[in-house]
């Protein structure tokens, strides 16, 4: 019995280590910030420090004042520039997008005496000049306001997409596969690169996305959808690239709770809500761990559908 426990522990440890290593090998999970640091007269400032304090990433400007920060996880950050003898400046709300380079230039004045820090609010450009293809990015705030109950319904909201479901409905004789076939502009479902945090999750046999890789609403930080024109790193994708970015914990403890139910309508006398029997609970919790620098995020979804479908020839029929 003791030997079994040790083996189980070793297998579990190997799984988590492998998962951590693989998550750092795949592309498509981060972005880049680059630019130039000058004084107010346009002269370059070599040696200026540009950094993102929240994630401890930064760079030092070269002799021409140019800097480059690579491998920045997607999200919104405050970017700060510092140099001795010059005023400290921070641009707030800088949004980093997957596989895109953001140009951020600084022009800082000489600090003759100790003054206040200059803070600038960053704004997203309406048109990205460096983008050569169509790309859609949906953040968690926008996802929470959409009229959907399944996170995979985001595919059906995109232009040129047709979704075919299996299991309880959709493709005959395909219930055991547990697939959701997504067709983009007439392409096959196997021509889409499905990824989660840059790791491929496409079904290796049937080519679709399996039900075992579903995410709940509170687990998604950002959804990236690119129907064509993608980089060579997605060589096996011919129709589209789909990438889900999961949430991670921050410096403070946070929690979210969302509950939907048809019980209230049933209690008020609605026969439809009584037959539907729908109950859905989403909850998430995240924050720092006891070890400095490590954070966690946990989320789950519990859905109870006592009557998933109420059709004409079912045993239970809704008759108004």
Explain how this protein is built.
It is a single chain. Mean pLDDT is 76; it is low at 1-5, 15-27, 167-178 and 308-315. A 5-stranded mixed β-sheet has the order 3-2-5-6-9, with no helix packed on it. Strands 10-16-17-13-14 form a 5-stranded mixed β-sheet. Strands 1, 4, 7 and 8 form a 4-stranded mixed β-sheet that branches. Helices cover 12% and strands 38% of the residues. It folds into 3 domains: 30-121, Carboxypeptidase-like, regulatory domain (Immunoglobulin-like), CATH 2.60.40.1120; 136-246, Ferric Hydroxamate Uptake Protein, Chain A, domain 1, CATH 2.170.130; 254-305, no CATH class. Strand 2 and strand 3 form a beta hairpin. The protein starts with a helix and ends in a 15-residue tail after the last strand. The relative contact order is 0.10. The chain is mainly beta and 320 residues long. It contains 4 helices and 20 strands. Pfam families: CarboxypepD_reg. InterPro entries: CarboxyPept-like_regulatory, Plug_dom_sf, TonB-dep_rcpt-like.
């Amino acid at each position: 019995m003791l030997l079994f426990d040790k083996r189980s522990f070793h297998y579990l440890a190997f799984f988590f280590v492998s998962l951590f290593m693989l998550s750092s090998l795949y592309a498509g999970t981060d972005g880049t910030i680059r630019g130039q640091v000058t004084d107010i007269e346009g002269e370059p400032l070599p040696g200026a420090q540009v950094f993102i304090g929240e994630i401890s990433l930064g760079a030092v400007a070269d002799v021409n004042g140019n800097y480059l920060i690579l491998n920045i996880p997607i999200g919104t950050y405050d970017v700060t520039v510092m140099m001795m003898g010059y005023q400290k400046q921070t641009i707030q709300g800088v949004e980093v997008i997957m596989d895109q380079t953001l140009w951020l230039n600084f022009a800082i004045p000489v600090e003759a005496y100790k003054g206040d820090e200059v803070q600038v609010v960053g704004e997203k450009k309406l048109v990205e000049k460096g983008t050569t293809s169509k790309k859609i990015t949906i953040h968690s705030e926008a996802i929470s306001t959409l009229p959907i109950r399944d996170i995979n319904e985001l595919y059906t909201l995109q232009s040129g997409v047709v979704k075919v479901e299996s299991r309880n409905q959709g493709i005959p004789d395909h219930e055991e596969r547990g697939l959701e076939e997504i067709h983009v502009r007439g392409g096959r479902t196997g021509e889409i690169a499905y990824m989660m945090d840059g790791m491929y999750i496409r079904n290796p046999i049937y080519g679709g996305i399996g039900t075992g890789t579903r995410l709940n609403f509170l687990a998604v930080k950002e959804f990236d959808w690119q129907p064509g024109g993608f980089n060579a790193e997605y060589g096996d994708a011919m129709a589209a690239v789909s990438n889900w970015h999961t949430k991670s914990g921050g410096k403070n403890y946070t929690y979210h709770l969302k509950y939907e139910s048809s019980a209230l309508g049933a209690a008020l006398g609605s026969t439809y809500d009584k037959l539907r029997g729908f109950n859905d609970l989403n909850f998430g919790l995240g924050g720092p761990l006891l070890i400095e620098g490590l954070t966690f995020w946990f989320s789950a979804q519990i859905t109870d559908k006592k009557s998933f479908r109420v059709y004409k020839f079912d045993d239970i029929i809704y008759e108004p």
